[in-house]
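Side project, low priority. Logging it here so it doesn't get lost.
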Amino acid sequence: MKRSLTYSDAGVDIEAGSNLVERIKPLVRATFRPEVITEIGGFASLFKLHIDQWKNPVLVSSTDGVGTKLKIAFMMDKHDTVGIDLVAMVLNDVIVNGGQPLFMLDYFATGKLKIDTAVQVIRGISEGCSQADCSLIGGETAEMPDFYPDGEYDLAGFGVGIVENEEIIDGSQIRVGDKLISIGSSGLHSNGYSLVRKIVFDRTKCGLEDHIDELGRTLGEELLEPTKIYVRTVRNLLRDFPIHGICNITGGGLTENIPRILPARCRAILRNGSWEIPPIFEFLQRSGEIETAEMNRTFNNGIGMVLIVPEQETDNISIRLEGLGEKVSVIGEIVERKNDETALQFE
């Protein structure tokens, strides 16, 4: 008689999955807000909303992934920062509407589960959630043999926040005369890596372990610099200042993201040279012979967030941001938009 097959014969290690849950419990538990009322490992997660603390609450949700930046992590066998990227990509979108992040869930999928690698990833997710004062209340680890190349995985995240209905920031308050303030990025963040990899590996022939003098570190270290999380900075501002619009500079760069929040009557003018562009962007543009328009449409070019604020509050908000340790620049203003004009112009 033939031996009876098991799930392990098909390449799925149930015991490894159980062991992973036990190892990550302390990491995840450290992110719990008081509203979390379930432990990790259940079928679903429970989060108690204290409705009495809110007048007219609205939930804010977002989902995202890390993208092909993961390829760099695979090549370097370094997995402790991409989890921070995941949190940033999700919760930076939640905060632009004024939402206070509440909880997040992750999805980790791989061909063969390597516990040490998965723990590194989830440690990064937990660190990111702690930076955002957000609970990591659950997730899913999927082991799918033959679906992913050996040693590779994919990440996705799902986040929920809350905001008072009267305090939602949706761009509707933006008006002519408002100023645009930029908050500096930590580097490439997690966008444009398909182009980054093509430039690096096809044009420069550089290795990830090569030290690049103008970057001040190895290329791999630069490319794995985690995405900055802006939750605490933005929430600090919202306590004391009116903010008419907030734009997270993600996929689509400056060109595609700023127009997303502008009313039809408004046009944004960005002043070239008004903010500092980190060396990595100059390195990529030169190495790939990339036109400036393509750089603006693909990368953040040193700007992680753009705030659109009343002109009279520009100085005070800039001073507060500098006090919080942020790189800040006044990069433009809102003018009247005519019917035949684009929503954004670089000057």
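Brief comment: The longest strand covers residues 153-164.
Revisit when time allows.
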